[in-house]
Amino acid sequence: MMFPASIAGSLPKPAWLAEPNKLWPQWKLAGDELKEGKLDATLLALKWQEDAGLDIVCDGEMSRQHFVHGFLEFVDGIDFSNKVEMGIRADRYKAMVPVVRGALSLRGRVHAAEARHARAHTARKLKMTLPGPMTISDTIADRHYGDCVKMAFAFADLLNKEARALEQDGVDVIQFDEPAFNVFMTEVQDWGIEALHRAIDGLTCQTAVHICYGYGIKANIDWKQSLGEEWRQYERIFPALAQSRIGQVSLEAIHSHVPLNLLSLLQGKDVLVGVIDVANDKIETAEEIADVIAEVMKYVPKERIIACTNCGMAPMHREIALCKLHALGAGVKLARHRFG
User: Fold this and answer.
1) How far is CA 310 from each of CA 29, 143, 197, rounded to the nearest angstrom?
2) Mean pLDDT, to the nearest integer, of 312-322?
3) Sheet arrangement for strand 93-106
4) Binning pLDDT at 50, 70 and 90, where does residue 215 land?
5) What is the pLDDT of residue 223?
6) CA torsion, points 224, 271, 320, 182, in degrees to nearest 10?
7) Which residues share a beta bridge with 210?
8) 232: left (phi over 0), alpha (psi -120 to 50) or beta
9) pLDDT digits (tens, 9 = 90+) for 157-190
10) What dihedral angle (degrees, nearest 10) is formed by the CA atoms of 150, 152, 158, 161?
11) Whose CA is closest to 329, among 286, 283, 278, 279?
């Protein structure tokens, strides 16, 4: 199908499951009720996406308090009891983060329950997301390895173990979220992509990396306003990504200052193009979305374009997010009529 539609990964959690409109929400359930609630919310996320006409659906990250910490909670060697404050994304903002105190190892499966639940309840292509090794290493304090690269590769090994298991669960696309890739551009080329290669080693399913300028939260919005009229950070890393073994690259387009001609540097890759802005509440029209796709077609072959959201929708108001999902579905339908 031309211009398949998907989302970056996260959706707002129902108010009965967690605090609404927050990036780091507190759960409202506990114990077995929380486990059941997470799976119920996963079904709700699938329903929202299918009703909106999306072609590649995901679990909405309903089982995770945060896109990074949802993975870290299953890793031994990490101290969550004595968090420390740390600047992340090159000190863009401060966060209280857990601390690596010893050798890292997985404590069983991470996302088996929601992946299998989702796979059993949708016939559409299923995507699951994982945090990328560079972004994890930038979102946790190291008191063991003494070298962020060594720690990132240790996380890459754990990510690979879970990714291989997700593929066995029937997942069609495994996406690694690497917002750190547009902050540490030199490191991306030096070791970041190689860490991703470690994470995808042995996979035969489709692989993707999501890089972006962040959620629609104040710290990110303020930072983007400081970047000027053209955001050219990707110019430094796209050639390396084009040579990588990652199959798809996800990034923002609508209402961003990323020059779309940079997409020509991703030759040979599928491009998940953000046509839905997650940093404001305005609902995009089908015409706006089709126009963005038309502009992207100047630089990316139309058979390689996947329509997506700019970033995750976790902190958004639920009704706004649902309207934007339906706008996405309507936009790709119009684009198929015009360009298919």
Assistant:
1) 30, 34, 24
2) 96
3) 75-88, 93-106, 141-142
4) low
5) 66
6) -20
7) 177, 250
8) alpha
9) 999 999 999 999 999 999 999 999 988 889 999 9
10) -100
11) 286
Q: Which residue segments constitute the domains of the chain, with CATH numbers given?
A: 31-339 (3.20.20.210)
pLDDT for 74: 97
| Strand bridging mode 56-58 / 93-106 | unpaired
List pLDDT tens digits, range 81-98: 999 998 877 677 788 899
- Helices (H), ranges, the chain: 31-51, 69-72, 112-120, 133-137, 148-168, 185-187, 193-200, 218-225, 238-242, 286-296, 318-339
User: What one-character DSSP code corresponds to residue 144?
Assistant: S
Buried residues in 11-45 as b, exposed as e (16+ CB within 10 A):
bbbbeebbebeeeebeebeeeeeeeebbbebbbbb
Is a pLDDT exceeding 90 seen at residue 317? yes
* DSSP state, residue 286: H
Quote the strand ranges of 189-269, DSSP E. 206-210, 248-252
* Cβ-based neighbour number of residue 305 at 10 Å: 24
Task: Give me the count of residues in the chain.
Answer: 340
Torsion, CA 180, CA 185, CA 189, CA 192, rounded to 10: -10
Q: For strands 75-88 and 93-106, give the pairing.
A: antiparallel
Q: pLDDT band at 50, cuts 50/70/90?
A: very high
